[in-house]
Amino acid sequence: MVTIIATILMPTTQTTLFRGIEVELDRCSEHTRRNIEIALKRGTNTPNPLADLEALEERTTAEAVGQLAATMLAHNASSDEVEDALCELRTYMDEHFLQRKLVRLYER
Known about the structure:
Blueprint: E1 15-18, E2 21-24, H1 30-42, H2 51-74, H3 79-106
Antiparallel strand pairs: 1-2
């Protein structure tokens, strides 16, 4: 019996933290990469390429939280059940909007 061990070396890509997201700048278009680099150098005084998505995220999440909590309380759910449901909703919404932001940044 022969055992073969293979090691696959994947090239490392450099990531940059931009607005809480690990972004692989090499995957971004030149325009997006330049905007991110400018924003990182100049700070909050530059246009944010994710501003509309972040605003949509806040608005959508606030509406969903209010609706879920109201519905659950109307059905006499316990405080623990409401809290658990809200935590699950927040996790779901965070992942959903993270994916949308990555699509925007990578323009796919």
